[in-house]
Amino acid sequence: MTGPLPTHLHYKRGDAPHMDILGGVSIRPDGCWGHTLKPNRKGYVYMDLRGSRKHWLAHRVMYEWIVGPIPKGLVIDHLCRNRGCLNPSHMQPVTIGENVLRGHGASAENSRKTNCLRGHPYDAQNTYVDRAGKRHCRTCNRERQRKS
């Protein structure tokens, strides 16, 4: 497991910051790389690099050290859904929007729905999107208007 260190992290010559983080890595049965460093309340592991006053997200350091630079404008998505995982093969650079939609938040869950609450399909003929970007069922809207 070797590779060029990310140059933008401003390592001092002779430092081996990756050794700081690799010393605490453990490989779990699911393939995730855990760490002895305590994750923050959101589940991410931060690390300090020698010679730097900044705290770095450990998964980003590992990805850039082993795989290469993260393209500008992209974020790292944990394909394993484990924010504390440091295994670069479990990570993929994606846009923020794609990362949100791959997750388990309300936006992601709603985007995966194929039918409204009453079972009508969300398809091109039966769906409209309001100014706020929310989908609505045309059939349910017609039924509501008839009742009013």
Number of strands: 8
Strand order of the largest sheet: 1-2
Task: From the 3D structure, determine the CATH topology of the largest domain.
Answer: Homing Intron 3 (I-Ppo) Encoded Endonuclease, Chain A
CATH class of the largest domain: Alpha Beta
CATH architecture of the largest domain: Alpha-Beta Complex
Shape: elongated
Number of helices: 5
Q: Quick one: biggest sheet? A: 2 strands, antiparallel
Distance between the termini: 67 Å
How would you describe the overall organization of this protein?
- By secondary structure, the chain is of the alpha+beta class.
- Helices cover 26% and strands 18% of the residues.
- The strands form 4 sheets. Strands 1-2 form a two-stranded antiparallel sheet.
- The longest helix has 10 residues.
- The N terminus is likely disordered.
Brief overview, please?
The protein has helices spanning 17-22, 58-66, 96-102, 106-111, 138-147; strands spanning 25-27, 33-35, 46-48, 55-57, 75-78, 91-94, 127-129, 135-137. It has 148 residues and is α+β, with helices and mostly antiparallel strands.
Layout of strands and helices, then pairs:
Elements: H1 17-22, E1 25-27, E2 33-35, E3 46-48, E4 55-57, H2 58-66, E5 75-78, E6 91-94, H3 96-102, H4 106-111, E7 127-129, E8 135-137, H5 138-147
Antiparallel strand pairs: 1-2, 3-4, 5-6, 7-8
List keywords for this structure.
two-stranded antiparallel sheet; 18% strand; 2 domains; Homing Intron 3 (I-Ppo) Encoded Endonuclease, Chain A; elongated; alpha+beta; two-stranded antiparallel ribbon; 148 residues; 26% helix; single chain; disordered N terminus
